[in-house]
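Teaching assistant's notes for section 4

Start the section by putting this record on the projector. Ask students to predict, before seeing the second block, whether Phosphatase will look compact or extended. Collect guesses on the board.
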Amino acid sequence: MNYRLIALDVDGTLLNDHHELTDQTIETIQEVHDQGCHIVLCTGRAPASTLPILEQLGLEGTMITHNGAVTVHADERGQSLVNEFSFEISEIESMLAYARREGIHFDVCTAFNMYIERVGEYERMMYQKFLINPKLVTSVSELGVPIVKFTLFAQPDVLDRVQLEWEDQKLYGNLRMIRSGDLFIDVMNPTANKGNALKALAATLEIEAPEIMAIGNYYNDLEMMSFAGLGIAVENSPNDVKEAADAVTSSNNNEGVHEAIRKYCL
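Reveal the predicted structure now:
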């Protein structure tokens, strides 16, 4: 086997569109893990909603969460923070004002918690789907603690407009704005991405980039796919992502992760 570490995006890659892991995918991941390969989930999810996926795989270890802003180690003793890229809530006040004015749903995250100011049934269903239990507060501006991610949740046409306006006005300042899904925009520390987090983790494990395979499906996966010796896009990825990848595997609904591991690792 040529690869010592496999980095896996979760939603749209590892899980199918029903947010499920298939038995065959679980068996393949366990097999490659038993042969000595590190399995690292690299996701936009928080640690609390990533851990159940890791447990379903029958594994423990390090998770890269919040799109690279937070790295956490999970074992039988619980979860411990390995690294985080944070910023101050004051840096997003102009974007908070915009979202409140336009009625666009948002949340802000620390390493282990998520905070919201309001929630409707549509947003509640989204959080349930991603196994998230956010904390309701009067104003996130009053949290007084560094945060790792600010996320907008809305329909694609709304976020398309937001993206254009915020880029035109540079409303995110020195922070980094990324489209992490059709329905999500994330604003984070400019050094926070899955690629940088994966690079730091690999260094601690003494694993070189050519020994890493990364599989993803969206623009927030590009840095980790570029860093890895083999970057693979699932078939359901946007064309830009597939063109940037070294290879393309089947879609998340057709067990693309299982197929890629079988082809390149087993």
